[in-house]
Every structure is written in C-alpha cells, then in structure tokens.
What we know:
By secondary structure, the chain is α/β, with parallel strands linked by helices. About 40% of the residues lie in helices and about 10% in strands. The protein has a single domain (about 5-225), classed as Rossmann fold (3-Layer(aba) Sandwich).
Amino acid sequence: MTGEEIKKLNEELSNTSAQEVIKYFAERFGDKIALSSSLGAEDQVLTQMLVEVSPETKIFTLDTGRLFPETYDLIDRTSRKYKKNIQVYFPKKKKVERMVNEKGINLFFESVENRKECCFVRKIEPLQRAFKGLDVWICGLRAGQSVTRKDIEVVEWDENNNLLKINPLASWSEEQVWDYIKEKKIPYNILHDKGYPSIGCQPCTRAIMEGEDVRAGRWWWENPDTKECGLHKR
C-alpha cells in the first residue's frame, strides 16, 4: 500500500471511533487481520471491542518464557471471560538455549545489543511466525505512551513485516483507557494497581515512580530513545 493511500485512509478515519476503525478493517480483511495482544491495558480494551464487533477475528500473544505470573493468569481470565482462544506463540527452544548458554541468563543487562538479541529471539521471531498469512495487524499503541510513539497514526505501513498496522487507540489518553476498562468491567493485569503501567518480561520491567513516563519501567537502565524491543520500530 502506498503512502498516499495510507494518508487517505487516515483522513477518512480521522473522526471515526476505535470500534468503527476495527470494524472497518475486519470487514475488509476477514481472516487476514489479527490483534497482537501483550495483555496490556490498551490491548485488553481492544480485545473487548474486537469481541463486540468482530468476534471471529484472531487474537494472539507471545509467551517469551519470562513473563510475570500475573500475565499468565490474565491470559486465562481473558480467554474465559470472552470464550475466545488466545493463540500463544513461543520462542524456538534451540535459539533460546544457544543464546542463554553463550551469553548468560540475564544477558540483556550487559548491553543494548544483547537486550535486542534477547527481544529478537523471544519476541520478534515468534511474531514473524504469527504474521504468516496476515495482511493487517491491530495494535494497542498510543501517542501518549512514550517519546518513541508520539507521532503514531491510526493507519501505518509496517515496512519490517510488509503489513498494515492499525492503531485504533492512537489518540486515546491513559484516562480514557481506564475509564473504558471500568465501564466495561474488562479484566486487566493486577500489576497495574501496583505501579506497573507498562508490563513486559519480568526481569525487564519495574514499577514506576510518580511523575515518570508510563514506559519508564521498561528496560529502565537504558536511554528513553532505545526503549523499544523491535516490534514497533520507529
């Protein structure tokens, strides 16, 4: 899809609700679209919306092998509430074994390069497998989440994966997300109540302090402009 076509789509959908954006693409792409969920607050909102407007659309998540117990619990609670199978993709065993045996169990603390290698093995490669057969992926990105995401639009072209990336909540505030969760009684990760606004792998996530950016707890030992795992290169 050309840049001009994406620009027209963003103009067409500029005053459209998140639910309508999801419905618009689900109706046009059928089984070629899926929600990639990290089980974060935004993705839980999108799960609720997707079940309402397009219940047959695929939802998948990535199990890196280093998630919080609370995240595994949320996968189960979400599947049960919505009576929907969330497909789980795992990293390849041999690649994890080789990486850990060569560089250590917590290699990611040693350098940005090591951390990105770990993210690639545990997240990017499984994501690439999950994308097979898809033309569109739905994401829970918001412009207000971090400095690396401030310019996101509802419709983007993902050059790395040759897919349309849809961000229905691009313009939503954190307050809107939580108001919607409360209104709809959406299950969420209990770590959010303990100072974890953004939750990834357990060793790479900490609670944040008052006044910090919502993603300050992700890879907290790095500079803000490197804090992406590679799923959303900007």
